[in-house]
Design goal:
Layout: E1 5-9, H1 15-31, E2 36-41, H2 43-46, E3 55-59, H3 68-72, H4 74-87, E4 95-97, H5 103-117, E5 123-125, H6 126-138, H7 140-146, H8 154-161, E6 187-189, E7 192-193
Helix pairs in contact: 4-5, 6-7
Length: about 190
């Protein structure tokens, strides 16, 4: 399969997300050299990539902050983006997601596309995939200690994709024992108390 166009959608303008987006763009350019390569995202994010040769911008604006109503608009915006891609003839779409808060809007938007157009758009949630693999790689106890916001699995992904940009000497030592109590209650997960 040789696509005529590859579109990479990114909403972020900071940190590891930008670095990983640049790796994905570079990999797409190498894998599909004959395809038109497009960056879909807000103007501010495009400014980071606009000097890349042969890269075209597809403007996609959506709220990163603001009122609850604006943040809830993510589903509608994603549906609009997916419809735009489909109108341009792109039917092989995969969503890579690294943020749990985006899972439900992505699920709803891709389900709506399936129901109206019968185009299946899979979503790969990097946390779920990597978290399920980590115990077999690092052992159950070490995996439990390593998982967390700003930690594994995304740190491992960055170490693999961008080893030259990582500073392993700055990583804190792994947690040991049970997580600390919060307000006298044990933690049951990210932001949850039991």
């Amino acid at each position: 399969f040789e696509p005529s166009r590859v579109v990479v959608l990114s909403r972020v303008t900071l940190g590891a997300d930008v670095a990983i987006t640049s790796v994905v763009l570079d990999a797409a350019r190498r894998r599909f050299p004959q395809a038109e390569l497009c960056f879909a995202g807000p103007r501010k994010a495009w400014e980071l990539f606009e000097r890349a040769p042969g890269l075209r911008h597809l403007p996609v604006e959506y709220p990163r902050q603001g009122t609850l109503a604006a943040r809830l608009a993510v589903r509608a915006v994603l549906e609009e983006v997916l419809e735009c891609l489909l109108r341009h003839g792109l039917t092989r779409i995969v969503v890579l997601n690294g943020h749990g808060g985006n899972m439900e809007p992505i699920r709803e938007a891709t389900r709506a596309v399936w129901q109206t157009r019968r185009v299946l758009i899979p979503c790969l949630y990097l946390w779920r995939i990597a978290a399920s693999l980590l115990p077999a790689i690092a052992g159950p106890e070490r995996a439990k200690a390593a998982l967390g916001h700003g930690a594994d699995p995304l740190t491992s992904l960055a170490l693999h994709l961008l080893p030259e940009a990582m500073r392993p000497d700055l990583l804190p030592p792994p947690r040991t024992g049970e997580p600390p109590l919060v307000l006298g209650l044990p933690q049951a997960g990210w932001g949850l108390l039991s």
